[in-house]
Structures are given as C-alpha cells and as structure tokens.
Amino acid sequence: MINWRTRTQAPHYWRNLVLFTAGVVLVGAWVAVIGVVYMRTMSIFHPARLALTVTPDDVGIADWEAVRFPSSDRLQLAGWFVPPDPASDGATLVLLHGVRNQRQEMLLQAAMLHRYGYGALLFDLRAHGESEGDTSTLGYAEVADLRGAVDYLLARPEVNPERIGVMGHSMGGAISIRGAARIPEIRGVIAQSAYTSVEDNIADGVRALLRLPPGLFAPLVVWLGERETGLELRQVRPVDDVSQIAPRAILIVQGGQDPAVPPENGQRLYEAAGEPKEFYLVPEAGHGGYMHVAPEAFEQRIMAFLDTYLRGTE
C-alpha cells in the first residue's frame, strides 16, 4: 500500500531543510561581519601600543631630550623635545602622529625642521606609545594633549612664544585643526591627510579597509565608539573648526591616492578655511609617505610655508 502522506511531505521537508540551512549560514555570516566590525572598532579606540625602534639620533639630531609633560586634563605624555637653533628666532612646532602609531612616525619631519633651525616637540598622544590613557578618541579629547604640549613649549626659554606652530598627520592633522581653533598661541597649522569629520573618516574606512557598505556599517562603528568612549564623537568635525583658525595661516596637505582619507577631504577643508590658506596635493602619495614619494618638493613647500607664516622671512 502506497503511503501518500509520506510522499507528499517529503518535498516540504527538503525545502524547509534548505531554508533552515540558508538561514543559519546567513545568520552566521552576519555575526561574523559584526564581530569583525567590533574588533576593528576596538582596535581604533584601544590601539595596540607600538614600541619605539629609533630615536632622534638615528635621523641626525644630536641635541634632543626625552621629556614628559601633562595634558590639560592631567594625563602624563611622553615625547622628545628638539630645541630650536640658538642662533635662530626660536620657532618651534608640535608634531602629532596618526591613530595606532606613535611619535616615531613624525621623526623624519622633525629632522627636516631641525636642518632649518626649527625646534620640534614630538610626543605620543594619549593611549599611544609611552603616554598614559587607555582610550583614543579620534581627536575629541586629544585637544587636551595638544594644549599640554603648547603649555610645555611656552615654559621652555629656548622657544619663541610668538612662533609656535603645529603639524599633524591623519588623526594628528584633525587634532591640529581642532586644537588651533581653540588654542590662540598656535600661530600656524600644517594638516596632512586630515579628515573632515569622524563620521566621514569612519565611512571612508569602512569602505576602503573593510570592503563593507558604509551606509549600513559606519553608523554602527560610530555608535560603538561613542558607547566605548562615553563621548559624542560626531562633534569631531574639523571641517567646522577650520574657519576659526584665520587670520592664522593653514597649509592642507593631501595625497592623491589616499584610500583612507580620500582627496576630497583636503579640498573640503581648504574651501572651508579662511585666509591665509594653502592647499598642496601630492598626486602620487597615499595616506602620508610624502617624504618618500616627493621628498624635495615636499620639503620645499613645507619650509616655504613656515618661513612665510611662522617666521615671516619671505
């Protein structure tokens, strides 16, 4: 006798099994993606500390000091101070590295400044290198680090308080803009590979680094970051701060092949800035590395800007 009930139920069984399996796979894939996003987010806000592998001696700077000073919210920050040439006018720059890096990233630029008699203060931002703190905030709280660095320079007799500038890369560039808008003692800014806002930067990073749709995942990263830091990271908008730097000068440097901070970031910052302002596009450069891809042109452009607006010699 034929069991018609069994025969009619079999197709439903296999269809349901296929649907169930597909659902499990999709849920598993979604969980895996969320896990990657979460780990990536935590690596931004709690970066692994990179050890120093060189010192100023290794780039031809003989006169330097290892220093420590407090941020304006009392974190101890570690750095190197390179005094200006005693025969010069005391012009000195604070150099700010990018996220998940440390002061060593700016060492070649410090050596360049040193050759022209400028002083330099390189230091590890909070939660990086040898400095205190366990949370990076992509430019929100780090303004207090820059404030502490400027206060340190103001206390150094070798430094001319009327000739203090700041030069930063990536997150350091964003901090340079936000800090200069709030710290009047900063007389000139060089922002390299700086993003227009945290939201734009995270969206670009989700697209370029994670290969995920930014419209779906960037808000999640921002939300996770705000939960982790307890801060409104959406307020980190250098594009809104940059106009407050004028009448002090700003030079915006941007790599034409930058996947992390696309060139339109630099263009938007330049358009929003007040005069005097300059925009320098390095077409062959990615996210930094200007001194490797265009060393002579980069040095000439940076020093001409500083000599004009920080020293007033051109």
Name its key features.
8-stranded mixed sheet, 314 residues, elongated, alpha/beta, 2 domains, Rossmann fold, 10 helices
What does this structure look like?
This protein has an 8-stranded mixed sheet, with helices on both faces. The chain is elongated. Helix content is 43%, strand content 16%. By secondary structure, the protein is of the alpha/beta class. The mean pLDDT is 90. α8 (263-272) links the parallel β7 and β8. It has helices at residues 4-45, 107-115, 143-154, 171-182, 198-208, 214-229, 238-241, 263-272, 290-293, 295-309, and strands at 65-70, 76-82, 92-96, 119-123, 164-169, 186-192, 249-255, 277-282.
Summarize the structure.
The protein is of the alpha/beta class and 314 residues long. The protein is built from 10 helices and 8 strands. Helix 1 (4-45) crosses helix 6 (214-229).
Approximately how much helix is present in the residues?
Answer: 40-55%
- What is the count of β-strands? 8
- What structural category do the secondary elements indicate? alpha/beta
Gyration radius (Cα, Å) is 24 Å
Low-confidence stretches are none
**How would you name the CATH homologous superfamily of the largest domain?**
Alpha/Beta hydrolase fold, catalytic domain
Number of helices: 10
State the end-to-end CA separation.
Answer: 104 Å
The CATH C-level name of the largest domain is Alpha Beta
Largest sheet: 8 strands, mixed
Q: Give the mean pLDDT.
A: 90
**CATH architecture of the largest domain, please?**
3-Layer(aba) Sandwich
Query: Shape, please?
Result: elongated
Strands side by side in the biggest sheet: 1-2-4-3-5-6-7-8
How many structurally independent domains?
2
Beta percentage is 15-25%
What is the ordering of alpha helices and beta strands? Answer: HEEEHEHEHEHHHEHEHH
CATH fold-level label of the largest domain: Rossmann fold
